Every structure is written in structure tokens, then in C-alpha cells.
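Sample intake — DNA-binding FrmR family transcriptional regulator
Collected from: Catellatospora chokoriensis
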Amino acid sequence: MPLILSYGYPRGYLRLMQLNEAVAGDALTRLKRAQGQLASVISMIEEGEECVKVLTQLAAVSKALDRAGFKLVATGMRHCRSARERGEEPPMSEEELEKLFLALA
């Protein structure tokens, strides 16, 4: 079953874009890895680990989250390009995709 990515707008409505299982699986793998790394960071802080080690692991968590987000935005770009090539209305405008991309920056 495909994962549905929804994007909220200030006006309060949603657009939906389906992610195929390969993309969803890749994103979930990255997010679960980040979840494990974050649990490790929390344990390190609770145990009084050295600051440098904690920050190194925290940077890894941040990078894993960023990569998952960029992967989803890249998928959105491909969906929009494919829709245009088929002569269909893309699920998101270029401006909407740009907002998503910049939200990750």
C-alpha cells in the first residue's frame, strides 16, 4: 500500500501525493535509523557522555532526517515532471515544491 504524503497550506487544505513502496521504504529505513541514533543520543546524555561524542551522534541524526526529507522532495519533483510529460496537472506547483525544499534547509 503506498504511503500518502500530505502537505498543509496556510489556507487549511491538503494536497496528497502517493509515494511508491520503494520510496516509502527507503524513507522509512532512513527515519528508523535516525530514530535509533536519537535514542542513542538520549542515552549518551543521560549517562553523561562526552560532549563531542554526543554532538557527533546528533549530527548523524540530523543528516539522516535531512536525507529522508530530501528524498521525499525529490520524489515530488519526479511526480510533477512525469505528470507534465503525460499532459496532466501536476500534484504540486513548482512554488509548493520549492517551499517544501526550503523547509528542509
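Post-analysis note: Residues 1-7, 9-14 have pLDDT under 50 and may be disordered.
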